[in-house]
Design brief:
The chain is mainly β. The chain has strands at residues 4-7, 10-13, 18-24, 32-39, 46-51, 58-60, 68-73, 78-83, 92-100, 117-118, 122-127. Strand 5 and strand 6 form a beta hairpin.
């Protein structure tokens, strides 16, 4: 069982930066792949970034590539999302999510159904 708690959201002007953090409980964090999703009003939840269990692989949605960076600290059970050059269209509730990643598996990094554990979400609002 993994419990996730996000922090770091807030209101920022366009062009600004925010760093989201997701603290995970439990002793199996390093066995879980992590993802950051977002959901804007009236839209489906979408994956913006994902990272493998040992940070060997990272994945980004085209809409955030070059602006967002996902990273993790397995020693401290934390995953981060550094968001730079923020745009009004980045406004959404951001969720941290996790799934157990066996070695050699080929997960669907972008699929909501792939992830077993979710945080409560943190609001990010970008003003123009």
């Amino acid at each position: 069982q993994v419990q996730l708690v996000e922090s770091g959201g807030g209101l920022v002007q366009a062009g600004g930066s925010l760093r989201l953090s997701c603290a995970a409980s439990g002793r199996t964090f390093s066995r879980h792949a992590m993802g950051w999703f977002r959901q804007a009003p009236g839209k489906e939840r979408e994956c913006v970034a994902a990272i493998s269990r040992r940070s060997g692989r990272t994945y980004y949605a085209d809409s955030v590539k070059g602006r967002f960076t996902i990273s993790r600290d397995n020693a401290n059970n934390t995953v981060y999302l550094q968001m730079n050059s923020l745009k009004p269209e980045d406004t959404a509730v951001y969720y941290c999510a996790a799934f157990f990643q066996p070695f050699g598996s080929s997960p669907n990094w972008w699929g909501v159904e792939q992830y077993d554990y979710w945080g409560q979400g943190t609001q990010v609002t970008v003003s123009s």
